[in-house]
Amino acid sequence: METQLVLPKYSKTVVLKFVFGQSDGGVRFIGQRVVVGGWVKSSRAVSKDPVTAAPDAGVHKDVTCVEILQSRFPFFRSILKVLGGAGQQIRDKLDTDLPMPPQLTGAILQVSDGSCVANLQVVVDSSLAPPGRIMPIGTCILAEGILQQPSTQGKQIIELKAEKILHIGTVDQDRYPLSKRRLPMANLRDSAHFRQRTTTVASVMRIRSALTQATHTFFQENGFLFVQVPIITSTDCEGASENFQVTTLSGKGKIENQSTADDAGGVELEVMKVSIEEKTKQVEELKRTDSNKEALAAAIQDLKKTTELVSQLEAKEKAKSGKPTSSGNKDKVSEDFFSCQTFLTVSGCLHLESYACALGKVYSFGPRFRANKIESRKSLSEAWMVELQMAFSEIEDAVDCADDFLKFICKWILENSTEDLKFLSKRIDNTIVDRLQLIATGVVEYISYTEAIEFLNEVTEKQFETKVEWGVSLSEEHESYLADEIYKKPVIMYNHPKEIKPFYTRLNDDEKTVAAFDVIVPKVGTLIRGSQNEERFNVLSTRITEMGLAKEQYEWYLDLRRHGTAKCSGFTFLFDSLVLYATGLDDVRDAVPFPRSFGKANN
Amino acid sequence: METQLVLPKYSKTVVLKFVFGQSDGGVRFIGQRVVVGGWVKSSRAVSKDPVTAAPDAGVHKDVTCVEILQSRFPFFRSILKVLGGAGQQIRDKLDTDLPMPPQLTGAILQVSDGSCVANLQVVVDSSLAPPGRIMPIGTCILAEGILQQPSTQGKQIIELKAEKILHIGTVDQDRYPLSKRRLPMANLRDSAHFRQRTTTVASVMRIRSALTQATHTFFQENGFLFVQVPIITSTDCEGASENFQVTTLSGKGKIENQSTADDAGGVELEVMKVSIEEKTKQVEELKRTDSNKEALAAAIQDLKKTTELVSQLEAKEKAKSGKPTSSGNKDKVSEDFFSCQTFLTVSGCLHLESYACALGKVYSFGPRFRANKIESRKSLSEAWMVELQMAFSEIEDAVDCADDFLKFICKWILENSTEDLKFLSKRIDNTIVDRLQLIATGVVEYISYTEAIEFLNEVTEKQFETKVEWGVSLSEEHESYLADEIYKKPVIMYNHPKEIKPFYTRLNDDEKTVAAFDVIVPKVGTLIRGSQNEERFNVLSTRITEMGLAKEQYEWYLDLRRHGTAKCSGFTFLFDSLVLYATGLDDVRDAVPFPRSFGKANN
Fold first, then answer.
1. pLDDT for B169-199, tens place per residue?
2. Residues B260 and B111 occupy one common structural domain
3. How far apart are the CA of B57 and the nearest CA of chain A, in angstroms?
4. Which chain A residue shows the shortest CA-CA distance from B192?
5. Residue A10 exposure: Cα atoms within 13 Å on the Cβ side
6. CA-to-CA separations, B382 to A363, A384, A529, B364, B379, in angstroms, rounded
7. Which end of chain B is flanked by fewer CB atoms within 10 Å, N or C?
8. In whole angstroms, what is the distance from residue B547 CA to residue A404 CA?
9. Which of A152, A181, A210 is the last residue of a domain?
10. How far apart, in Å, are the Cα atoms of A91 and each of A85, A168, B326?
11. Is the pLDDT of residue B276 over 70?
12. Domain-terminating residue out of B310, B333, B356
């Protein structure tokens, strides 16, 4: 059965996922001419016997690229080392022009185009390109050739016999951070622009993309409208968050000078104070020695001036250490780009709710920001969240939706990312498929916050580091104990104390708890935080006051309660945590394309 | 034909879009019991005759809510006006408790749930709720009842006869910004949390959501992976952009004090300089008058000290006006959250390309930021962009993709947003459907930048405000002339001078132009900016130097060329401008949920 290859649009290259994705693994395409582009994942030199189209024809000697270069051109290597980066061109030229040692007749490359886990074996005769030039890990190659049965023994069922090399993107092996194979994830983090070329990170990012697609599909199938909430905001959506400020005011120079000026102020004052003492002595001396009147008058005049200056300086120093006057501050903020203080949003919930209170069911999906000065494997400064808000809906509705949503996306990944899950099961964590199935097909456990506290207080078999007490948030160890050890499935905890939830969460009739819920899953903990929102103007207004928040910031949100208030519920879904859940990774910084965390924003 | 209503999930309310979306406009549901929730768009009081289920049975007198309240309760109204906002509760109570005037027996409400353009007519007997309480525009109502044939003459083909009112969210009419109907768009901008309750803005936002959905669908159908590029970045992706800084350093107080300290520095210096003159005179006077040695020595010592202090102050003032020393600046930046200067991203292209150079075809969709201090109907500080990058692809591929993409989303909107387009054609611009069809089914015009300049230079029938010259960007008037007046269809302009395109655009063989293209469409101008990227290390490195950019910032991007470079192309799609194109709006601030522009970030 031969299928004509459908060439992908917008490129001359055939996508490997399409080739390997056929039921026969691409065997049907044997004999066809294609262009393939990708990066070398591993390579072998072919020595002695020329590579032929017949399988198992040649006896291949495994030689790595590094071995070739180091053993055969030691003199040139040492010269190039001295030349460093500038030697790149010369090195390329040498690689091209130098006659290949007679025993190297070609190279066998395992090439990935990033579309799937599998590599294509590409056989390149040395007449097309010097093996030493194309063999280093990370080399980019664009080759035209014929798909054929493999010429070597191995797991490949097809290979490309190159007939033309259209492009080579060489690698500077000394500087390329991925020259070594199987680097630990933590080391790869510093190469956020390269690590996606590893099979593991590529798999993670394909799963991340599939989860994104699943998210949009779920909400659109269920009639949600997508609303782009703002990143720059003048509202602190959760009250008292650690915010990033957005400004066009603080230029480099200004920040630096301010510091010098501050320091200098103190020094001057000390010098002047000493000066006053001396001048006082001088005046007394002039008086005592009965010197001429003019000199005395001048000295007195000078003392007076210096004293005035000192009191001016003292007042200024005092102002510095104290709080700024509100009018002065307002003036300065009014010079900023937006004429007010603005932050990176910590949550789009409030903005989104104003759309729910007009359009019904709405969702958003984007980065949210927290300037928490901690380094942790669960914390990002820029984290991706899915948020949704539904009008005419109560807490049970939001819980149902959260449950359906989780089931939907886990099922989606199981069906659409089979190869990536298989690879990550082998490489990272062999329980990921079971864990996804646990959510996709399983049931959840419901437990109220109060029940959870009572339960945890009775635990004797385990010692917790932090004490469990009604009124405080459960810590990671408690959540993990419930989800991983006791229930071994997703736990939905509800009715939290009002103090530990945002001000807009709806107050229950007991006036102590609020209509909130958390979905806690094994391995990663809290995945979803949801609530019914407070639709009663007076109760909401009181809550804002109670929590000591700056009410003027929330006037627009209170407007939603003043005019045509509706019951609303919704939730926030911690997208990055789901990537951990689905891939088996332990650190959220490995699950995000360009992680931002305390002290780290490299590019 | 009767269809059982499928109740929507996650709410008890039926979605109006589903009801009206039936081929018979919902007539099939007559007789069924439903719960409907929404906001009152207009209302009429029913007087004298009770509302009955039979059509055209009652003789209705049109009375608006405001008329009722003002004519019937003048005394209470004036009291409530005095009470202001605090009167809300009392007013609600009055509305509830006051006996209705005998002639008002109910209300007919036009209710929207935001899911579609059409309103549902809801008939509420005064025994269920006081008409004056539910009739104001913007009132939220949740009602259970039976769908029936309309009881009034009009365009409705079904209505809801309410049997139970489950919730009323009243409106404080004096303060509700939408109490007046048909407010100009510019006035609505100040109520970003409410304006989506108007039929026009709701339509625009539904179209925006549909365009988002179309975007994701196109890229996913064509094998693109979604990559979340960072918002916080230490790289200026286009070089020399007007950036927003992201910081946790600049507290309110510090900014204010800095200004005072700066000013004070100059004043002190002047005072001290005067003081030196006087002290010099004093010393000379002491010498001249042959005064005692101790007094003279003290005066000389004092002069010396003051002179030293002045030269210290002068050095400080000089540093202030000049550039800061790099070491001092570095120290301060190192205290910031990320230990380096960070900005809001102006473009995700570079980050995205590092993923293309590993995974093949990738796209992103998110806000990008520019701190341009201008107010314009085309400019936003936070604008939404679709960006894509494809490895092994050249400029022609990117142009093909841009063309297909535009056709796809315009076709999508024509097929999926029929009702909203119909409404906006009537309300805003009756050419939007033609315009969308122009792209969806039409051809584009190709013209090189050089040809365009030559052509525009020969134009005599029109006077341009700015001169056309090779080497400068075309201004809006030139683009508009080409797309709106000459070609009357999308124009793809290519091969721009290298000076007017970003540093990473690939240099053509003439070494003057680059492999860039813009898609310019009638009405909104540039919609897409694309390019093939410079894959040659040396050329890229030279371009960065030529343009005077800070090279160290781009080292990571240069790495992509050092190690396994591939030909890449892609484009940036100005999403908000497409919303203008598709809706007929003129100002981009009306096309974004929460617009951010110079001086405006209200919530």
1. 999 998 999 987 778 898 899 899 999 999 9
2. no
3. 31
4. A354
5. 24
6. 19, 18, 27, 16, 9
7. N
8. 53
9. A181
10. 10, 14, 36
11. no
12. B333
Neighbours of A184 (CB within 10 A): 7
Contacts of B281 in chain A (CB under 8 A): 298
Residue B50 has pLDDT above 70, yes or no: no
Three-state DSSP class for residue B546:
helix
Cross-chain Cβ contact A169/B37 below 8 Å? no
CATH of the domain at B81: 2.40.50.140
For residue A250, give the nearest of B113, B232, B250 by CB distance.
B250
The interaxial angle of helices A293-321 and A252-288, nearest 10 deg, is 150
First to last CA, chain B: 49
Provide the CB-side half-sphere exposure for B534 (13 A, CA).
26
Using alpha carbons only, give the angle B354, B547, B533 rounded to the nearest 5 degrees.
30
Residue with tokens 């390149």: A124
Asked if A600's CB is within 8 angstroms of B354's CB, the reply is no
Spatial distance between the Cα atoms of B551 and A556, rounded to a whole number of angstroms = 45
Q: Are A502 and A541 in contact (CB under 8 A)?
A: no
What phi, psi does B133 have (nearest 5°)? -85, -30
The DSSP result for A51-71, as a single string, is: P-SSTT-S------HHHHHHH
**CA-based nearest distance B155→chain A, Å:** 23
Q: Single out the residue of A529, A521, A525, A528 nearest to residue A434, CA to CA.
A: A521
**Candidates B193, B246, B596; nearest CB to A244:** B246
The SS3 call for residue A510 is coil
Backbone angles phi, psi at A123, to 5 degrees: -100, 120
In chain B, residues with a C-beta closer than 8 Å to the C-beta of A41 are none
pLDDT at A271: 56
Q: How far is B498 from chain A (nearest CA, A)?
A: 24
Contact B189, B589 (CB under 8 A): yes
| CA B37/CA B122 separation, integer angstroms | 10
Q: What is the DSSP secondary structure assignment for residue B62, as one 8-state letter?
A: -
Long-range contacts of B16-24 (CB under 8 A, 24+ apart): B16/B112, B16/B113, B16/B115, B16/B116, B16/B118, B16/B119, B16/B120, B17/A223, B17/B115, B17/B116, B18/B115, B19/B120, B19/B147, B19/B158, B20/B116, B20/B118, B21/B116
pLDDT score at B312: 59
pLDDT digits (tens, 9 = 90+) for B249-269: 865 333 333 333 344 444 455
Does A430 lie in the same domain as A550?
yes
Instruction: Decide if A175 is inside a domain.
Output: yes
Query: Can you read off the two tokens belonging to residue B510?
Result: 């003439």
Amino acid, single-letter form, for residue A97: D
Q: Are residues B521 and B433 in the same domain?
A: yes
Radius of gyration of chain A (CA): 34
Token pair 């959260």 in the structure block, residue:
A402
Instruction: Tell me the pairing of strands A525-532 and A513-521.
Output: antiparallel
What angle do helix axes B252-288 and A326-334 make, rounded to 10 degrees? 110
Q: How large is the average pLDDT for residues B544-557?
A: 92
* Phi then psi dihedrals of residue A445, to 5 deg: -105, 130
Structure tokens at A584: 């088996």
Whether residue A601 lies inside any domain: the answer is: no
What residues contact A436, with CB distance under 8 A and at least 6 apart? Answer: A410, A413, A414, A421, A581, A582
What local confidence, expressed as pLDDT, does residue A288 receive? 67
Among A253-267, B53-67, B107-121, B482-496, the minimum mean pLDDT is found in A253-267
Amino acid at A113: D
Complex ipTM value: 0.82
Q: Are B367 and B382 in contact (CB under 8 A)?
A: yes
CB pair distance less than 8 Å for A223 and B12: no
- Cβ of B260 within 8 Å of Cβ of A397? The answer is no
Cβ A143 vs Cβ A178: under 8 Å = no
Q: Residue A513 is encoded by which pair of tokens?
A: 């708890």
Three state DSSP letters for A446-462: EEEHHHHHHHHHCCCCC
Distance between CA atoms of residues B418 and B424, nearest Å: 10
The domain of A493 spans 200-245+342-590
